[in-house]
Each structure stands twice: as C-alpha cells, then as structure tokens.
Design a protein that fits this description.
- The chain is built from 24 helices and 24 strands.
- It has a 7-stranded mixed beta sheet, sandwiched between helices. Strands 4-3-5-11-6-9 form a 6-stranded antiparallel beta sheet, with no helix packed on it.
- The longest helix has 36 residues, at 587-622.
C-alpha cells in the first residue's frame, strides 16, 4: 500500500478530555490521498452504470481513464522514483497490474483495482495523520504571538517565530509564555502542568528559566529570550515525537528487506505464469489475465501493512493518555522489557515538598496547631517552596493565619517576622543554632538530626530567641507509586530496583513503603549506568524511569529510557525514548501492556496476510480466479489487516492495558 504520507494542511480543534489545549484533528479531505481516492471513486461510479447499461465506450471510457489517472498517478510516481533507486515498489506492481488488465479489455476490473488501492491508501494516510494529531494535540501549547519590547522601549505584538535570542518580551497575568527564556524582573507563579505535569505552579522570579507554552499566574514577568522558536522545549519534544511516523520497527525493517526479494521473485513468477501457458498454446488474453491476477493476489501489501498500524495505533492511544512514545521502535521495545530501574526524587515522589511532622519542643507550651500557625504566619509572605509547604499544611488544617510585620528573608537561612510584639524566626536549624549551646537548643539540634537522618528536611521555629519546635518537610510519595511498582513486578516477573543519589536511609524508607527490595543509594550518574549495564550483561532488557539530568546517562544506556515530563530535565527528555507527560506513574505499566498487545496483533496480521496470499495464489494457479475476486480478496486482506491494527486506537484498548 502507499507508504509516502503527506502532512495535513487543514485541521479542526477538538477539546481534549483533560481540559488542556484543543487537539487538532485532521479533516479527511485535507489529505491529498483522500481527495484523489474520492475523485477516482466518483469517476468509477459514474462510468460503471454507463458501461453496464450498454452505452457506447466513448461515454464511459474517458471516465475510467480519469479514474485510472486520479487514483493511480501518485503511487505510480512514487513507484517510479523508487525504481530509479533500484528498488521495486509494491505500489508500482499494483499500477502495472491495473494497466495490464485494461490492456486486455478488462477496463472495469483495472479501475476497480485502482479505486480499492487508492481508498486503502487514503485510510492508511488518515490513520497515520490521526496518530500525529493525538500526539501533537498534547504539545500544541505555545501561543502564536508575544509582546516584545523594541529598542525604543515601545511594545509590539509579533509572531513567536520572529522572536530572536536576546529579545525581551513581557508576559502579563493569565498569558502563556511565548518563548523559552530567563526572567529579568518581576515575580509570578507559572503553571507548567501542561508540559511537565507538575501539580502546582512554580514560582518564577529574576534569574529563573521559563518555558514556552506555560501559563503565567497573577504577576507580570519580563523575560529575555534564550532559545529560538524552533529550539524550545516544546519544539524539541514535537520533533522527537514526529519521528514515530518516520521510524520503522525492527520487524518492519525485516519485512521491507523480505519485500524486495519477494517482489523480484513475484515478477519472475508472474512472467512464468504468463509465458509457460502461452508456450504450450494457451490463448494470449487468458494467459495475460491469469498473470495479472497472480501479480495482484501475490503482492505483499497486507504483509507490509501488518506491522505499522498496530504500533502507530498504540503510539496514538498512549499519546492521548499522556505517554509520548518516540518511535515505533520504542513501542516495540517497551513490550520486551523484563527489568525496571526507578529513580526516586521526582519519579516515585511528587517532587513537591510537604510537611510530614510537627514537633513542639518540651517546655515550649505549644501544641502542633499553634506551632504550625506561628511558622506559617511568618512564612506566608515568602515564595520559597518550603515556605509554601508550611503555609499549605496550615491551610489543610484549617488554621487562621495572623498577619505579621517586619518580614525579612535571608537566602540559605530562613525568614523572620514580628507578631504581637514577638520575633519569629523560621529556617535551617544548622544555621540558626550554630552559636547556641543552651539545653533547649541542644535538644532542638538532636531532634533536627533525627529528622534529617530519616530523609526529611528539618525547619526550626524560634520565638524571641528561644527554639519552640521543628517541622519536618519531605517529598511526598506519589499516590500511584505502590500500585505502579506492583504492576511492573507482575509484568516483568521481578520487582523494580531503586537507583538514587539520595542517602541510603531516605532511599530505604521510601523503598519499604512501595515494596522495593533492591535499593542502590548515594549513586553518581556513572554508577547508575553501571547498575543498568550489570543487568543487561545478565541478559535483561532494562527500562529506566527517571526525570533529572543525572538520570540521562542511565536513560541512554538502557534498553528503553522513559522520562517523567518535568521542567529542568531537558537532557532527560532528549535522551529518553518516551516521556510521561502528566507524571502519572500507572501509565508506565499500561504502555508496556499496550506494547505487548501491539506485538501480538503484528503476529496475528502476518498470519492473516499469509493465509490470504497463499489461498488466492493457490486458487489462481490451480483453478481460475476471476480478476475482480482476486482484487477484492487482495485488497480485502489489506483492509482487514489494517483495521485489525487500528483496534488499538480504541479507548477500550487502553482500559484493558491499565487493568
């Protein structure tokens, strides 16, 4: 079937289920394959009744000729181009068969072959275009225009494609950031969930990096553009994903190699089917018709189409559910995974700090709510992530936060504020207690070390110079982490291993929570690579799941690398074979299960195609197979194989994979 697909030019917006940016769905007749197929079909349907009712050939002959031209010129031209490269294309064989049928007077049969062939190609093009739509819809986020400061200080609205590195743009509240860049001044919370899946907006201020397509909060930002529009995070991910329709899985590559030899053999066999009966006295027309029928039914269209539709459909379905699979090669490899290595921070955990413990010191006279209220009141004006964790914890408990005064923040130390004449300081115990030696300070230091030894961050609360208590802050385990680990263990037959640069105590504590026994902590990036290679030397096919720059070497070394779609991990996104856009861990075992089902469908398709070809060839050689029936059987098998692969586009296919 036709394999050269033209990018759609006309699309319509479809609102996605997750409420994000509208998806762009390709209109059927935006595809040239669909337009040519429709024209050929209409011309055929106009000519057929004229021929059947006995009208003269001049009435229906030109219509058939136009049907041949409209439905066959594109695959015929592609076949000739391939022939120049000394490659025999199946498309060209189909056109030759149709012209051969016309040459012996079977004009209607040849036209029918052209129409069915063109229609099958249009369906294949539409399936591939819809695959691209599903993936592109997740990433079609960047605004079309941005507000740029000109050299004279005036503001001008320009297309984002015209922005250059070094330009200054302003991003007002509620707008999407127009380019990757760095904040010059201003402060705001930027929602990066559409790209990274982060559940909370990220505070951005001078010196922070922002990404095109992210949504600005309530503040205004002045941003210096640092990347060209073609090199933004979104653009790079899009380029990565678009390779899905250009890359061929190993099975497909093998089939293409077989196809070349098969096609040459088929041409030789066709000549034999034509010449041998002719040599023993068979009628020329009968011999040519049998040979043309043989060429059609023996063509490996269904075999060629057996591989890509299931894999591309699986890619599309995964894309709709927030898993961007880079290529058909990757989709096939995912089903081969039999060992998994997981990163900790930002992968099994949310990457967002949360208050886990509230510990008033003995003699402070405060209970947990009172200690948290004082800390949150002091931290409230701060934009630091740990401050927000404290304030969020107070809000979750429904505590009323009094208004403080004299707020001050010291980077690396903490914050200070006044409340009802009392001086409140909240910050790092090591810095706040470094010159204190009284009994309460000693107890506070001991408690802080205990919390930090367990993998938490300790925050000390001091009132009027006296330590009053500690808060413990930690990165919270993702809600689906435990279920994901169990599902991966079930799929691969062995529990995942944990590879992390964190200390052993924190790593072991988290591993115990999720059910991981093999914990390797305190690792540098090269150590993670060594762990992956150790498994692969033992014959395992390892999938690494991570999110940070330090995970990139392991992602590259693994059989399959999967990245969590978090900001600040550009290298991981580029290195990984797949990206979990929404950071939903349970999609990882789901996409593995979907890949395995796609591989099963490939095998099914190859069996279906082989049975049809063998049966039709035997019928033609042993008996007399009518050309229309041969065309219908050949194209019918191609359509069946294609539709069988497209089953993975259905929502039920994903639901079955998730179960």
């Amino acid at each position: 079937m036709p394999s050269t697909l033209t990018a759609p030019s006309t699309e319509r917006a479809v609102a996605p289920r997750d409420g994000g940016a509208p998806q762009r769905r390709t209109r059927v007749f935006a595809l040239p394959e669909a337009r040519w197929a429709a024209a050929a079909t209409v011309l055929f349907l106009l000519a057929l009744p004229l021929q059947l009712t006995g009208d003269p050939a001049w009435a229906w002959g030109p219509l058939y000729a136009l049907a041949y031209a409209t439905g066959g010129w594109e695959p015929g031209w592609a076949g000739l181009q391939a022939l120049k490269k000394k490659t025999l294309d199946v498309d060209l064989l189909m056109i030759v068969a149709a012209l051969g049928a016309a040459a012996i007077g079977q004009v209607m049969d040849g036209a029918l072959l052209i129409v069915i062939f063109a229609t099958s190609g249009a369906l294949e093009a539409l399936a591939t275009a819809r695959t691209a739509d599903s993936v592109r819809g997740l990433l079609d986020l960047a605004p079309a225009k941005a507000t740029r400061f000109d050299t004279d200080g005036s503001e001008v609205i320009v297309p984002v494609e015209e922005l250059e590195v070094g330009d200054i743009i302003v991003v007002r509240p509620g707008e999407r950031v127009g380019a990757d860049g760095r904040v010059l001044d201003g402060a705001s919370d930027v929602d990066q969930a559409t790209i990274t899946g982060e559940p909370l907006p990220v505070t951005k201020e001078a010196g922070d990096e922002v990404f095109a397509g992210t949504l600005n909060g309530t503040g205004a930002l002045r941003v210096r553009v640092e990347r060209d529009a073609s090199d933004t995070v979104i653009a790079r991910i899009v380029r990565m994903v678009q390779e899905a329709s250009e890359t061929k899985a190993p099975t497909q590559l093998f089939i293409e190699k077989v196809e070349q030899r098969y096609s040459l053999g088929m041409v030789a066999a066709t000549l034999a089917v034509f010449l041998i009966p002719l040599a023993i006295g068979t009628d020329l027309t009968h011999s040519l018709l049998r040979a043309m029928t043989f060429m059609i039914v023996a063509s490996p269209c269904a075999v060629v189409l057996a591989t890509m539709p299931p894999l591309l459909s699986a890619i599309a379905n995964a894309g709709r559910h927030g898993v961007l699979v880079k290529s058909a090669v990757v989709m096939e490899r995912l089903g081969q995974v039999d060992a998994v290595a997981l990163d900790k921070t930002g992968t099994l955990t949310e990457g967002t700090p949360r208050v886990t413990d509230i510990r008033p010191l003995a003699g402070s006279g405060l209970n947990e709510d009172e200690l948290l209220t004082l800390a949150a009141a002091a931290e409230h004006p701060s934009e630091h992530p740990l401050a927000r964790a404290v304030v969020d914890a107070a809000r979750e408990r429904g505590l009323d936060l009094p208004v403080t005064g004299d707020f001050d923040s010291t980077p690396g130390v903490g914050v200070s504020a006044s409340l009802d004449g009392r001086a409140i300081v909240v910050g790092a115990p090591a810095r706040l207690l470094e010159r204190s030696s009284d009994a309460r300070s000693v107890r506070a230091a001991i408690a802080a070390r205990e919390l930090e030894d367990s993998g938490r961050t300790a925050v000390l609360v001091i009132v009027d110079g006296t330590p009053m208590g500690l808060l413990a802050i930690a990165d919270r385990l993702r809600p689906d982490a435990t279920a994901t680990v169990a599902s991966l263990a079930s799929l691969t037959g062995t529990a995942p291993m944990l590879l992390t640069g964190d200390n052993a105590r924190a790593a072991t504590r988290l591993a115990d929570e999720v059910g991981i026994d093999d914990v390797r902590a305190g690792l540098l990036p090269q150590h993670k690579v060594d762990a992956v290679k150790q498994l692969e030397h033992a014959g395992r096919r390892v999938m690494v799941l991570g999110d940070g720059v330090n995970d990139a070497p392991a992602l590259a070394a693994a059989h399959t690398g999967v990245a969590m779609g978090r900001a600040g991990s550009d290298l991981a996104l580029e290195t990984a074979d797949a990206v979990i856009v929404r950071d939903e861990l349970l999609t990882v075992p789901a996409v593995i299960a979907l890949s395995r089902r796609a591989r099963r469908l490939v095998v099914q398709n190859l069996i279906i195609a082989g049975v049809f070809i063998a049966g039709l060839v035997a019928w033609d050689l042993i008996g007399t197979l009518p050309l229309p029936l041969g065309v219908a059987g050949h194209e019918g098998s191609t359509v069946i194989v294609g539709l069988n692969g497209l089953r993975l586009l259905r929502e039920t296919a994903w639901k079955r994979a998730v179960q």
